[in-house]
Write a structure and sequence with these properties.
It is built from ten helices and nine strands. It is an alpha/beta fold. It has a single domain, classed as Spore Coat Polysaccharide Biosynthesis Protein SpsA, Chain A. Helix 5 packs parallel to helix 9.
Length: 267
């Protein structure tokens, strides 16, 4: 779609919302999301994927009758990566965005991301905690581990972004269709998987956007409990990262036509 033809009124947007055990907040969060996008987009869908929820989220989700909401129930809890992948497979939009179901990142960012996609004609727009205009509050040990991880990403994957892990990302449909056949990671490494696949398949116009995010609620937990939680996630993330690094050469070797097409487009 050309820059001249792109506008909010003509583009179909798919919003994928992965959720897990959100029965107390799901109605309020989806109302917040719908309130932010309904006035700005004529053609959109909200695909809510419940990832093995056991607290009544599924029943609550299925009881919602809004015409824009498409519920998908995954019976077994497999991980947010799998939930996002399931949502991407169901998406019909020209542009596909996912946003964490807890709405820690305010859905007002969606129209900002779409505006940036239009202005810069990029392949992917990602939220970043390290953008100069980002407003983020979180503990020092989270900052340190996040910084370490991003240095590893920069060296191993040559992705020129400062933050791969924020739970809001916007893709052109062409990018989603290219990366989906190669996506395997079910848990914390799936963000990096999507971006590294996009980059190595030739879709390297990745733009970072500032976000507002406050970890103060989670940081009120006893520090050793939070540290255990953070290190547990970090271990899983680093394991996923290693396996992804080993897989990429095989993926690249099998997709020469896609790379040739991307290189011709860039030229």
């Amino acid at each position: 779609m050309s820059q001249e033809a792109f506008n909010f009124k003509s583009a179909k947007l798919s919003i994928v919302v992965p959720v897990f055990n959100e029965v107390q907040q799901i109605t309020r969060n989806l109302d917040l999301l719908l309130g932010e996008v309904d006035d700005h987009f004529e053609d959109f869908e909200v695909i809510v994927v419940s990832d093995g929820s056991t607290d009544g989220t599924n029943a609550k989700l299925l009881s919602l009758k809004h015409p824009r909401i498409r519920p998908i129930i995954v019976e077994k809890n497999t991980g947010k990566g799998n939930a996002v992948r399931v949502g991407f497979q169901a998406a019909a939009g020209d542009y596909v965005l996912f946003i964490d179901g807890g709405m820690e990142i305010h859905p007002k960012e969606i129209r900002i991301f779409m505006g940036l996609m239009s202005l810069y004609q990029c392949d992917v727009v990602v939220g970043s905690k390290r953008h100069p205009q980002a407003r983020v509050q979180y503990p020092w040990y989270r900052k340190f581990l996040s910084w370490c991880f991003q240095q590893i990403v920069r060296v191993l994957f040559k992705i020129d972004v400062t933050d791969t892990q924020v739970g809001i990302k916007l893709f052109r449909r062409e990018v989603v269709e290219a990366v989906l056949p190669h996506m395997e990671i079910n848990r914390y490494g799936f963000d990096l998987e999507m971006l590294s696949l996009a980059k190595h398949l030739g879709y390297d116009r990745i733009l970072e956007a500032p976000i507002q995010l406050d970890y103060s609620d989670s940081s009120r937990r006893f520090i050793f409990t939070d540290l255990y939680h953070v290190f547990k996630i970090s271990y899983s993330l680093f394991k996923d990262t290693f396996h992804l690094y080993m897989r990429l050469p095989k993926i690249k070797a099998g997709v020469h036509p896609a790379l040739d097409k991307a290189e011709k487009r860039a030229g």
